């Protein structure tokens, strides 16, 4: 008889590119079992993919989870910021852990390499944005090595083809949520986030540049700290790589990273979608590992 722990039952709400790529990742997990893949259109490519993989599907959206509360213990919300505002009270009423992949900013902001243990204390965690997952660990490392940070600017460039309808609808929320995360984790006074959708062919990989104005730059100390943080990120995002710096340029500390995806459901250039899915998966697996310790009761 196997002594392996029973997997945590998870539902994925949202059957677009992000939700479907996340599904492929969940199916590889030793800790998670996808027991419901839920969207709004029974004919969507994501639903077809899930059916081909033998995963239970529904086109009844949040109504399916309300009608079948025992279908899961944790829900990944891969819809939109506006939809998550409507979904969050339902998750709370049903007692479900919510891992929110939209920039709704309702739950605690979570970056696994930075505040995994803190986030476990909450029942709704927000994975911020793809740019936030790429840049906030750098901003956090800056905050740990510099006492006085005036300004941090984050510029992310992604392939236009990797920005689906939900991403484009959420651009304002993307900016606000990324800037909030930068300030929250670095302690800087001012922050600015920029997202460029690059139409180049062949498609580019995701690249994010972080520029910081600090009172007394300590590039050597920051470099050592950043090296450790980047190594932690690569444990759950293998395609994360520091490709420039850190270096001092015109009084600013400049760092650039590149994210190449795993190429599961989406092309490898879509590192922007891969990084937030990998972060959400790492978050959910940590809930599964610590389910009993956290006092969430018997798994459904």
UniProtKB/TrEMBL annotation:
Known EC number: 1.2.1.10
EC top class named in words: oxidoreductase
Active site per database record: 130
Regions that span the bilayer: none
Signal peptide coordinates: none
Catalysed conversion reaction: acetaldehyde + NAD(+) + CoA = acetyl-CoA + NADH + H(+)
Pfam family, one: AcetDehyd-dimer
Binding site residues for NAD(+): 15-18, 162-170, 272
Source organism, top-level taxon: Bacteria
Domain Semialdehyde dehydrogenase NAD-binding: 9-122
Keyword NAD: yes
Keywords: Aromatic hydrocarbons catabolism, NAD, Oxidoreductase
Family: Belongs to the acetaldehyde dehydrogenase family.
NCBIfam families: ac_ald_DH_ac, PRK08300.1
Name of the protein in question: Acetaldehyde dehydrogenase
């Amino acid at each position: 008889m196997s002594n392996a722990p029973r997997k945590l039952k998870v539902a994925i709400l949202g059957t677009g590119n992000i939700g479907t790529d996340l599904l492929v990742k969940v199916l590889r997990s030793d800790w998670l079992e996808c027991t419901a893949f839920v969207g709004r259109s029974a004919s969507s490519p994501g639903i077809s993919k899930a059916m081909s993989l033998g995963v239970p599907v529904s086109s009844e959206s949040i109504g399916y989870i309300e009608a079948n509360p025992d279908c899961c213990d944790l829900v990944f919300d891969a819809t939109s910021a506006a939809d998550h505002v409507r979904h969050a009270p339902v998750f709370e009423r049903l007692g479900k852990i919510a891992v929110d992949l939209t920039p709704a900013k309702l739950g605690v902001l979570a970056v696994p390499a930075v505040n995994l243990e803190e986030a476990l204390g909450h029942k709704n965690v927000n994975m911020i944005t793809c740019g936030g997952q790429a840049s906030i660990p750098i901003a956090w490392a800056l905050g740990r090595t510099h006492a006085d940070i005036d300004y941090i600017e984050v510029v992310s460039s992604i392939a236009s083809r990797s920005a689906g309808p939900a991403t484009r609808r959420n651009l304002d929320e993307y900016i606000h949520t990324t800037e909030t995360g930068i300030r929250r984790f670095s302690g800087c006074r001012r922050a600015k986030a920029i997202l460029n959708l690059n139409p180049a062919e062949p498609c580019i990989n995701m690249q994010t540049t972080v520029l910081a104005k600090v009172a007394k730059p300590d590039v050597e100390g920051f470099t050592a700290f950043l090296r450790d943080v980047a190594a932690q990120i690569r444990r759950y995002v293998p395609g994360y790589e520091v490709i420039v710096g850190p270096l001092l340029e015109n009084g600013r500390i400049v760092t650039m990273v590149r994210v190449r995806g795993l190429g599961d459901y989406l092309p490898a250039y879509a590192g922007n979608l891969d990084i937030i899915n990998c972060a959400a998966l790492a978050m959910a697996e940590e809930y599964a590992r610590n389910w009993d310790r956290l006092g969430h009761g018997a798994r459904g």
